Amino acid sequence: MHYQLYYWTGLQGRGEFVRLALEDAGARYTDVARVDGDAALQPFLEGRCDGARPFAPPFLRADDLVIAQVANILHFLGPRLDLVPGGEAARLQALQLQLTIADLVTEVHDSHHPIASADYYEDQRDAAKQRAADLRQHRLPKFLGYFEQVVARGGGHALGAHSYVDLSLFQLVRGLDYAYPEAMAALSPRLPGLRALEARVAERPNIAAYLASTRRLPFNTSGIFRHYPELDGAITADTGESS
Amino acid sequence: MHYQLYYWTGLQGRGEFVRLALEDAGARYTDVARVDGDAALQPFLEGRCDGARPFAPPFLRADDLVIAQVANILHFLGPRLDLVPGGEAARLQALQLQLTIADLVTEVHDSHHPIASADYYEDQRDAAKQRAADLRQHRLPKFLGYFEQVVARGGGHALGAHSYVDLSLFQLVRGLDYAYPEAMAALSPRLPGLRALEARVAERPNIAAYLASTRRLPFNTSGIFRHYPELDGAITADTGESS
Predict the structure, then answer these.
(1) CB distance B150–A53 less than 8 Å?
(2) Which InterPro entries match (chains A, B) (predicted)?
(3) Which of B96, B97, B99, B136 to mutate to probe the A interface, most A CBs <10 Å?
(4) Which pLDDT tens digit goes with each residue over A25-47?
(5) Domain edge (last residue) among A80, A113, A133
(6) Domain presence at residue A117
(7) Does residue A241 form part of some domain?
(8) What is the ipTM of this complex?
(9) Which residue range forms the structural domain that includes residue B23?
(10) What angle do CA A231, A233, A234 make, to 5 degrees?
(11) Coil, strand or helix: which one is B46?
(12) What's the per-residue H, E or C state across A185-242?
């Protein structure tokens, strides 16, 4: 199988969660827009192609299937790339965790775009400062504390063994380190399991090779995880939700 | 199978998407918190129960499985309740559409809570007015226009036949009618397929009986879909995304 991944050029974005799974598994795939340009996405987004119309990228073509939504793509790829344990219960748990990662990713996006996703950050900076403060103080401790417990229960893995969820948790932690270095420095002592998982994923041969390649774009302020120093900051002791 | 649904009392919320599937199929289920109180959710949310820990309600117990995230629950229930067409492609497309519905539901939630989900609406009303204006003017036309095309292609159904996605689209339209009546009145002429689907779902015998029962709570300002008159309003002609 040769997969075709459709995602915007110039940023990691939500496409990166799919890319990491394809790279880790050594799957054959084409990152279509990096070859043909972003215009290659339009016929799908405008509903001019057969099959399920994607609302937004990323989407994946596999034979005659067109599959959108990151968690759905990974749910599809998981068994094919040997990136999810066998059995329905494990697949459901993987999907549940991936959807919870997706919820946090949306909250991270909205921390720099709390008012209108199509408008400039600079035009919603005041609201962004407020939302980012809530993200740092309440939401990150709550979500990351949850994932830390999941990984502790899984013996260092989200699902007891390597899976696409581990790859996505790696990306989540790396993205937050880029966007919110000060907040993550404060939280890290409470996240030993996630930090160990991050290090182990980075050392996987295919991931290490990918991270060292030009295919891995640097994080930047076009993506989901954006570093604006005025949004970062310390976390005070009492988060109320991190215990 | 007797299912146990866990969701907060006093509001429809995200639990309603699951409830509609269980009711439509005539499944046997207990709405646990309505019997035992909201405290019944805590052991699961605090990670003190076996199985996958939910990050948030709703979650469903089915034998020894604990399944969280609405789209994941419906993906699990679909084949069991005969609420999704057969075959992997149809199940993936259903999941994709349900995840896109979930994205809009989150945007609707954030239109009244753009800054901090745990704080009062009244403390973020100014930002809410801005975000709600963007929702009305850009996001609703874009999302609902997408679903309208999906339903048109499906011959009146999201998936070509009745499914849990139709039930969720019904709930989405009803919720938006409650929260944003003026905006929805302006958009409705462009949504004949969704309006026909809504009417057809409401007439399904089990759904009609459910809607007439005390189990169907009225929409209120504790839920996802909230009516605050100051957030509603007209949609100007050029949405830029509705074509």
Answers:
(1) yes
(2) Glutathione-S-Trfase_C-like, Glutathione-S-Trfase_C_sf, GST_C, GST_superfamily, Thioredoxin-like_sf
(3) B96
(4) 999 999 999 999 999 999 999 98
(5) A80
(6) yes
(7) no
(8) 0.96
(9) 2-80
(10) 155
(11) coil
(12) HHHHHHCHHHHHHHHHHHHCHHHHHHHCCCCCCCCCCCCCCCCCHHHCCCCCCCCCCC
